[in-house]
Amino acid sequence: MTARIHRHDLSGGPEPGELAKDLEISLAEDVDQLREHPESIDSAFGTSTLILSARSVVDPVAAKAETWDATVNAMQLGTTMFALTNATEGTLERRINQRTYTLEALGNRTFAHAGNWLTAFYLAAICREPDRMTELCQVPIGNMRAVPGETDEFNYRWIDTLQTYWLRREGLAEKLTATIEASDPSRVTIAPQDLLQGVLYPPINLFYHLVRRDTEGFAPALEEALKLHRAYWTLTDDRRQDIDGAIALGPLAIASWAFDGDFPLDVESEYLPKHLLQHSWLGEYPT
């Protein structure tokens, strides 16, 4: 029997269709300006993920081309951010918003942190972009550790686990165990506990079921992840109206791998847009 996890009501915030259109105009201008100001890619990336959230409210199953465009743009900007910050000299050619841009390398920047890496990687996984996932997995974790600001250790261990898995390096089981141990609430001192339990940890738990080929346990874990996501984003009135809660990005990424691995998911939700989960748009145009 398929479980149905409904997305919470987002009607109290800005009208999502108009918001998306306004932001898309702004994003096109921001992307063109990257030629002269590549350091502004952080802002462009943030705008692109907001557009994706807005589009997913208008189009909950991602059946419209505009939603796929938003997903691809966010993925391209996220991976480009880390390509530019992982290079210290020269230029790189990057495809963004259906055009090719020649952009100057930036070297490590404050925005090349663990949180943005995870968002970029989740987007690349959702878009089924193996080359971009490989590119992201070649970013040294030391670069992210060098970025100013405090981040809980489990985030770095989670990134190490994903890089090890994708690049087929040795030690996956040990690294996943270390990630799970480091994400114990008693050891997490920076991220708020509700953020940990509702957003940050569920993808790790889903990955645990994925790599164990636990086809019976994955769907219940996915259902629980979506319930936790909804609980987090409805805890306060401000969060309830925050369009960032429209998609469960981490669970969607891991569920995409599970779908491709023929796991029975048995879960439907607007938090997991159907045609992104099932890669219905794959090959629609060069990305």
Automatic annotation (TrEMBL):
Domain of life of the organism encoding this protein = Bacteria
* Stored Pfam families: Imm49 (PF15575)
Q: What is this protein called?
A: Immunity protein 49
Q: What is the lineage of its organism?
A: Bacteria, Bacillati, Actinomycetota, Actinomycetes, Kitasatosporales
